[in-house]
Specification:
Blueprint lengths: L1 H40 L5 E6 L9 E8 L5 E9 L9 E7 L6 E6 L17 E8 L5 E6 L5 H19 E5 L3 E2 L5 E9 L8 E6 L4 E6 L8 E8 L4 H6 L7 E5 L5 E5 L4 H15 L7
Antiparallel strand pairs: 1-2, 2-5, 3-4, 3-6, 6-7, 8-10, 9-10, 10-13, 11-14, 12-13, 14-15
Length: about 290
């Protein structure tokens, strides 16, 4: 009986020792594989990022993320996404941008979603990040979350612009009537702002501005009812380079007061027929003028 007990204890001991050794081996093997994988992936790229607005790419829904590579090897970014509770998420966006080492950043044009405006047109952007998938030359991809500077003037400007546009779109509509030629070759038309939110305070157009090619100037007209404003369009520049290089030739702006004394800028809609009238005005008004301006 004692011998049987001894044999049983010995068998149980051997089994337990075997199980413990197997667990240790499996655990050690996993660690070795992770360490080997980390070594193969290499160190994560050393990147920083800022949010910028570039004149050539200035439009709602687009922010420039300027990425600087503080490492010693070129880094390729294959995906980017703005992470911010101030804008709705868009999901990762594909890129194939190589960022050389050094102090000069490289721009990524990143789309962002509709603004979230808890404080209306006075909303401020919360602390935000950019998610990047990047790899150094010869290395594996790394998923990085890079903090953007906070407070962030760029994100504040984008947020307030989008919140302002949303508030205005909910309150009024803005239209421009046909552009009619005058005796001197300039064009005249009428802007009209109409409330659609049921507000009782009158909405008024307080000022206008043209573009790099055209002026759009208010002109007094006592015959027009409240909410309407006569404007005169003229050519500002006649040079071929100016005309050819203009990125937003019809980017006109009007300022609208919803009755609270706050003037909100917004784009003046310009349709196809109005663009054709503006283009036809150019050779007439530019005749005899210095084509270098």
């Amino acid at each position: 009986m004692r011998r049987l007990r001894f044999v049983l204890v010995l068998v149980v001991t051997v089994v337990l020792v075997g199980i413990a050794a197997l667990v240790v081996a499996l655990t050690t093997g996993d660690d070795d594989e992770v360490a080997a994988g980390d070594a193969a992936a290499g160190p994560a790229p050393e990147l920083t990022a800022t949010a910028e607005i570039r004149r050539s790419f200035n439009r709602s829904g687009l922010v420039v993320i300027a990425v600087t590579n503080h490492g010693t090897e070129p880094v390729t970014v294959t995906s980017a996404e703005l992470l911010s509770d101030s804008f709705e998420a868009t999901g990762p966006q594909p890129f194939d941008s190589t960022i050389p080492p050094g102090d000069i950043p490289r721009d990524l044009q990143v789309e962002y979603g509709p603004a979230r405006c808890p404080d209306g047109i006075d909303s401020e952007a919360v602390a935000s990040q950019v998610s990047l998938v990047a790899r150094a030359d010869g290395g594996e991809e790394h998923e990085l979350v890079v903090d953007l500077p906070h407070p962030n003037g760029t994100l504040n400007r984008l947020l307030r612009t989008d919140c302002r546009d949303a508030a205005l779109a909910e309150a009024v509509t803005l239209t421009m009537g046909p552009l009619e030629p005058r005796a001197d070759g300039t064009l005249t038309g009428v802007l009209a702002v109409t409330r659609i939110d049921g507000g009782t305070a009158p909405a008024t157009i307080t000022d206008t501005r043209g573009s790099v090619l055209f002026t759009v100037t208010p002109e007094a007209d006592a015959t027009l009812p409240p909410g309407q404003l006569r404007v005169v369009a003229d050519v500002l520049r006649c040079g071929g380079h100016a005309i050819g290089d203009a990125k937003r030739p019809y980017g006109f702006t009007a300022w609208i007061d919803l009755g609270d004394g706050v003037e909100i800028p917004t784009a003046i809609p310009v349709d196809t027929s109005q663009r054709a009238a503006l283009d036809a005005m150019q050779p007439i008004r530019c005749a005899g003028r210095d084509n270098d301006i």
